[in-house]
């Protein structure tokens, strides 16, 4: 796949990058270099290789999923400016 100057201009426009006409050949060449590198990466055999999120093995810290603030409606509603029947009360926005 090869990128010409017209395609480079379209990409620059889509990216909202102002590129002068005299800089388009260099931009097209850069895009072609990037595409060549991607083609090289596609040739690498990654069958059986697990994806990784970091170069060093790490495990996420996990905690038990426990409700810690339940069964305290009176305590929770005590800071509300207006509470009625166990709920937060808010002013009407629409009639």
From TrEMBL:
Superkingdom of source: Bacteria
Q: What class of enzyme is it?
A: ligase
Keyword annotations for this protein, in alphabetical order, are:
ATP-binding, Ligase, Nucleotide-binding, Protein biosynthesis
Give a yes or no for keyword Ligase in this entry. Answer: yes
Q: Which reaction does it catalyse?
A: L-aspartyl-tRNA(Asn) + L-glutamine + ATP + H2O = L-asparaginyl-tRNA(Asn) + L-glutamate + ADP + phosphate + 2 H(+); L-glutamyl-tRNA(Gln) + L-glutamine + ATP + H2O = L-glutaminyl-tRNA(Gln) + L-glutamate + ADP + phosphate + H(+)
InterPro entries with a match to the protein in the record: Asp/Glu-ADT_sf_sub_c (IPR036113), GatC (IPR003837)
Q: What is its EC number?
A: 6.3.5.-
One Pfam family, short name: GatC
Q: Which family does it belong to?
A: Belongs to the GatC family.
Which NCBIfam families does UniProt cross-reference here?
Answer: gatC
Q: What does this protein do?
A: Allows the formation of correctly charged Asn-tRNA(Asn) or Gln-tRNA(Gln) through the transamidation of misacylated Asp-tRNA(Asn) or Glu-tRNA(Gln) in organisms which lack either or both of asparaginyl-tRNA or glutaminyl-tRNA synthetases. The reaction takes place in the presence of glutamine and ATP through an activated phospho-Asp-tRNA(Asn) or phospho-Glu-tRNA(Gln).
- Subunit arrangement? Heterotrimer of A, B and C subunits.
**Identification of the protein by name:** Aspartyl/glutamyl-tRNA(Asn/Gln) amidotransferase subunit C
Q: Which organism is it from?
A: Pseudophaeobacter arcticus
Gene encoding it? gatC
């Amino acid at each position: 796949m090869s990128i010409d100057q017209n395609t480079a201009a379209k990409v620059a426009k889509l990216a909202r990058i102002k590129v002068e006409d005299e800089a388009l050949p260099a931009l097209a060449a850069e895009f072609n270099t990037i595409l060549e590198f991607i083609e090289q990466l596609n040739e690498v055999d990654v069958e059986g290789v697990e994806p990784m999120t970091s170069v060093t093995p790490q495990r996420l810290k996990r905690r038990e999923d426990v409700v810690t603030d339940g069964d305290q409606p009176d305590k929770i509603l005590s800071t509300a400016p207006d509470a009625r029947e166990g709920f937060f009360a808010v002013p009407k926005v629409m009639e």
